[in-house]
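Final report, section 2: Outcomes. Of the targets proposed, Alpha-dioxygenase 1 is the one most frequently requested by collaborating groups, and we therefore present its record in full.
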Amino acid sequence: MAFITKTLFNNILRRFIHQDFHEAVSSMTITDAFLFLMVHSVDKLGIWQRLPVILGLIYLAVRRHLHQQYNLINVGKTPSGVRFSPGDYPYRTADGSYNDPFNEGAGSQGSFFGRNIMPVHQTDKLMKPDPMVVATKLLTRTQYKDTDKQFNMIAASWIQFMIHDWIDHMENTNQKVELIAPKEVANKCPLSSFKFYPTKEFPTGLYNIKSGAKNIRTPWWDGSVIYGSNKEKLQKVRTFTDGKLKISEDGLLQQDEDGIPISGDIRNRLVTSAVIAKIHTIDWTLELLKTDMLLAGMRANWYGLLGKKFKDTFGHVGGSSLGGLVGLRKPVNHGVPYSFTEEFTSVYRLHQLLPDSIHLRNINVAPGPNKSPPLLEEVPMPDLIGHKGEKILSQIGFTRQFVSMGHQACGALELWNYPSWLRDLVAQDVDGKDRPDHVDLATLEIYRDRERRVARYNQFRRALLLIPISKWEDLTEDKNAIEVLKDVYGDDVEELDLMVGLMAEKKIKGFAISETAFIVFLLMAARRLEADRFFTSDFNEETYTKKGIEWVNTTESLKDVLDRHYPEISKKWINSTSAFSVWDSPPNAPNPTPLYLRFPSS
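The predicted structure is given below as tokens.
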């Protein structure tokens, strides 16, 4: 009877949904199919971003639920064994193990990357169209475009810091791949050819996904970019006194005998990691997605719909909706061991944020209008990377560098805005040492998505229950972009590479990233909090200490951190509300309307 009911329901439902989703809906429960009809109806009207805040939050909550049910795919066998006692590990281990009480290896160094979408084999299409053609005709910067006042260079460096904390694929160093520039773009490519290591594949022991890649980082929010992902790295960077790191006389990280910064790329690690996670959730992200709806949504992730004042007074009350993800009674992984995914890696390819030069400011004079310091000089970005860059940055000093980055907008995530200097880059190995082969990073990023079997743009959208495009005009209104897209891909929108689609896609007002990338973020931003026991069941004074919890609870932004450690920077040079927006921008205007009752501005 239940089968007949579901069949009848699905037959009725198909009349109202896009044909590309018929198969996906047929595998859903009746409840989830009805929820999908709700979000799909809103999507067809193209209005979710224009809904009142409270209705928008409902839309996002329903959509996130669907992705938690159908877009979390395990890669690799889940070990079975005796449940360990979290009390035996009241700290973050160096390699990320012993976080999930039922799976000691989940999220540890060397674990598999998961999936949000089933892998799409592209062996026969690795070079179609040629990655160098794609990079040259659609990605390479022709004229620098920035984000105006929304996002500064500190915000760009922050996300690089996060990505290096979370993900790094293991390579097959016993093999090399060579890409050669085809004749039609050879004279525009900085490198006529380049070599690199392919991603190393490991058997998973599963039937549906037979092989996968492994992560040499720990995907938890644990500050491993600083502390390292193993005990050896951890011991190199820590003083083991008051939880402090080893630093040099100029206040920056120490360097080894080869001039390489000593960092990871534990107990006192807990508080720092939680502060980083909180700043990213309710400060950095709010500048990336600058709308009232996301302001409400991200604060709800941390504090719940009842808000900060209620949570500070009464503690965590209710489930994740009312009380937030942080402080839940137990971690939640939705039946899939925690990991970051290949698709998350792909949508966080954000090198367009980087400019061609850093605008150094004169901090030895009085601030100008809106606390802006005068321009001193422009330093080309190629001079600031690698070992040469370490020396120059040390000479510039932390304060001048930080103030300069705060007053400079970062690049926009659009077509024709990929830094040209990254197409002739000296790559480094996992130890920070220069490799002999230069690489064309723009080309390599196109190749990596295909190599790692990440779906191309249209199939990617379908799998995320987003309406696919049927013609180039659905993607962008830019006539020049449409012309070049046709030149590279012909009329076949199914061949469009994911990264190109993300850059070409029309942006939602206030969003620095595309809607497609945002949907992956919507799912994974919650997952990295709710699956971690140090943000849920062990987010308490017993684990963090009373002072540690107080430190986390009283930090609301990067500006708070600056006020504690560099009060002169904040007081003298920051006019903006957030340290992640351009510092001479005006502070956010007060809004007397309660957040949940607001409507988006036209």
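The chain is about 40% helix and 5% strand.
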